[in-house]
Amino acid sequence: MSNPWQRYADDHARTVDTMTAALLFACFLFGSEINFPRVRQPDPVGPTIALAAVACGSLFWQRTRPRTVVTVTALCTAAAGALGMLLTPLLMAPLMLALYRLALHTDRRTTRWAFLAALALLITTGYVADPVAHPWPLKTLGPAAWLLLPVATGNAVRFRGAYVEAVQARAEYAERGREEEARHRVAEERMRIARELHDVVAHHLALANAQAGTAAHLSRTHPEQVRRILTDLAGTTSAALREMKATVGLLRAADDPDAPLAPSPGLGRLDELTASFESAGLTVRVDTEGMPHPLSPGVDLTAYRIVQEALTNVTKHAAAEAAWVRLRYATDHLTISVTDDGTSTTADAEPGQGFGLIGMRERARSMGGALKAGHRAEGGFEVTTRLPLYPIAPEPEERNP
Predict the structure, then answer these.
(1) Domain 267-401: what homologous superfamily?
(2) What pLDDT is recorded for position 322?
(3) What SS3 string covers 246-287?
(4) Which residues are 372's β-sheet partners?
């Protein structure tokens, strides 16, 4: 995050460059007057002003051509040293600013070579062309230390800027990832709610239709049975409304006081489910093999919905009078088989056809299980699914190129 001075410098770059050049021009002239006592100081006023003007004037291009500015300021500083001036920080100020800009806008290797070249030029000029014969530490260690300072500072600022940009990029990437994950979860939740609505509506409407048809058929010959069937029909529609309210209630906010609190159905309600088909003329028998194991809520709901959808398909698409539900518990999985003794009358009963079978396969696969459906050799139709006792990640589907 930039401070007000940085924002002002970015917005008024030409004004800041002009003020900087004027200030460093004064520093160059003042630094040219510094020397040791009792040392005869050369007095080349004209050349000094010219060198200061060229060195500071080149700073107007420090943002666009930093290499050229370093070269010009280094030559001007070396020429000042050849005139006998002491290489002080004031005299080297234009070169120091040029090296700082170079380190800020280029890579470390370029800055290193520019620093070494400028230092070699100043040291060589000091030893070869210095008319005053200044002490050697002032011609070597002094320039090296003062020129190294802006190089190190520029590299540090550039690295910090790169680090901040990297952190911001990672934060933006993480934010995009969270948004994509949220959209993905919303899509999955919509698909789950759509499957729930399909199962609830298809089951109860098919059952209500069968009960109404049976009541109409028996209305003249068995009026007592018609009353019982109509009572069951009222219970069927009431159950449909309750389950639809519970399913649609998943869309409510978490803190909504009207949100439903009823638990999701499971195999514990299997007797209630099978009994609801009796009034539609379908006798359902449930057999259990093995020791029943507790199921996770997801697997329990999936098993219940698969049985519900399979029996609903029997009622809708098969001329059957009886159906069997077999639950076989193993150590790590549950196998469910739903069979009937009727004949298929629609394409929805064909293996791999219809939305009912597609929904059941998707439910089984979402829990890490598998489902098979098809005609039996001895007649009727069979739906078999194998579910793990606890949900596992489904294997990815193979796609043909």
Answers:
(1) Histidine kinase-like ATPase, C-terminal domain (3.30.565.10)
(2) 87
(3) HHHHHHCCCCCCCCCCCCCCCHHHHHHHHHHCHHHCCEEEEE
(4) 384
Half-sphere exposure of 171 (CA within 13 A, CB side): 6
pLDDT at 192 over 60: yes
Alpha-helical regions (H) of 106-222: 108-129, 136-139, 141-218
Q: Which amino acid is at 14?
A: R
Q: Taking the domains of the chain in order of start, what are their residue ranges?
A: 4-139, 267-401
Q: What pLDDT band is residue 141 in, cutting at 50, 70 and 90?
A: confident
- Residue among 151, 75, 154 nearest 118 (CA): 75
Place of tokens 């949100």: 259
Maximum pairwise Cα distance, the chain: 138
Closest alpha carbon to 146 in 81, 95, 110: 95
Interatomic CA distance for residues 127 and 135, integer angstroms: 10
H, E, C per residue of 355-397: HHHHHHHHHHHHCCCEEEEEECCCCCEEEEEEEECCCCCCCCC
The mean pLDDT value for 324-341 works out to 91
* Residue count of the chain: 401
Q: Please, which pLDDT band fits residue 347 given cuts at 50, 70 and 90?
A: very low
The pLDDT score that the predictor gives to residue 41 is 61
Q: Name the residue type at position 310.
A: A
CA 365/CA 321 separation, integer angstroms:
30
Q: Are the C-beta atoms of 324 and 355 separated by less than 8 Å?
A: no
What does the alpha-carbon distance between residue 325 and residue 330 come to, in Å, rounded to a whole number?
16
In whole angstroms, what is the distance from residue 88 CA to residue 23 CA? 16
Residues forming beta bridges with residue 285, ordered by sequence position: 324
Tokens found for residue 259: 């949100």
pLDDT tens-place string over residues 270-323 = 888 888 777 667 888 899 998 888 888 788 888 888 898 888 888 877 777 889
Q: What are the tokens at 230? A: 């109509």
The H-assigned helical ranges of 254-296 are 270-276
289 φ, ψ to 5°?
A: -120, 140
Q: Which two tokens stand for residue 141?
A: 């260690």
Torsion of CA 87, 93, 95, 100, to 10 degrees: 130
The pTM is what?
0.46
Res 346 pLDDT > 50: no
